[in-house]
Specification:
With about 240 residues, this protein is an alpha/beta fold. Helices cover about 40% and strands about 20% of the residues. Helix 2 runs parallel beside helix 3, helix 6 crosses helix 7 and helix 6 packs across helix 8.
């Protein structure tokens, strides 16, 4: 069955260009030209991925992204924008976007990014099938199938990207992971050394899973290198 991609942009020329290139690769494509229509179609059509423009009439792309995440919809989101400031990029990723491309873009690269994101999602769903899927570390339980993390049996509200970062670090428990490693593995993209993206997400994770984010038990900083997931000593 063809994977379904929802493309959201108010420029008809962009919609046609992206649709043509995705359909050529065998994807099924629907489109929307404003934020509210995008939300409605995401709920009704249940796409496998959303290509989402930042600047839209009515609800902008960031608000669409935020609302999808609020509703616990874990569909991957590739954000398109003409903005290039670091703040904008980090903000989009903080709200739950999976990847980020600036206009003008190469249709070939966009298709490659879409495929890479879908591969990563499938890999996350498909690993460790023969073992207990829920991972338990200290007070935390991580369920890769449901994208759910609980602490002391209470659900922790994570964005999909925060969940993927946590899951990757837990899967490499005890290993020191550089920021570049985390960028490559979790975002599957080179952000040109923009380690702030990793630092922001780690900071948010600590606020959500640690009792005291200033003295973390789970995610330790290895100065000058990166981060290491440990957990309580008796876990």
């Amino acid at each position: 069955m063809a994977r379904k991609i929802l493309v959201v942009d108010d420029e008809v020329s962009i919609l046609k260009l992206v649709r043509f290139n995705l359909e050529k690769e065998g994807f099924e494509v629907e489109s929307a030209q404003d934020g509210q229509t995008a939300l409605d179609r995401a709920v009704r059509w249940k796409p496998d991925l959303v290509v989402l423009d930042w600047m839209l009439p009515g609800l902008d792309g960031l608000e669409v992204c935020r609302r999808l995440r609020q509703e616990k919809r874990h569909v991957p989101i590739l954000m398109l924008t003409a903005k290039t400031e670091e703040f904008d990029k980090v903000l989009g990723l903080e709200l739950g976007a999976d990847d980020y491309m600036t206009k003008p873009f190469s249709p070939r690269e966009l298709v490659a990014r879409v495929k890479a994101i879908l591969r990563r999602v499938e890999a996350l769903k498909g690993e460790d099938k023969d073992r207990d899927r829920v991972i338990h570390v200290g007070e935390l339980s991580i369920d890769p199938d449901g994208y759910v993390v609980t602490k002391n049996r209470k659900e922790v509200d994570l964005t999909p990207k925060e969940f993927e970062l946590l899951h990757y670090m837990v899967s490499h428990r005890g290993k020191v992971l550089s920021r570049d490693q985390l960028l490559s593995a979790v975002w599957n993209y080179d952000f040109l050394g923009d380690s702030r993206i990793v630092d922001v997400h780690v900071s948010h994770l600590r606020e959500k899973i640690e009792d005291d984010s200033r003295t973390p038990v789970y995610i330790k900083t290895v100065r000058g290198v990166g981060y290491k997931f440990e957990g309580p000593k008796n876990a």
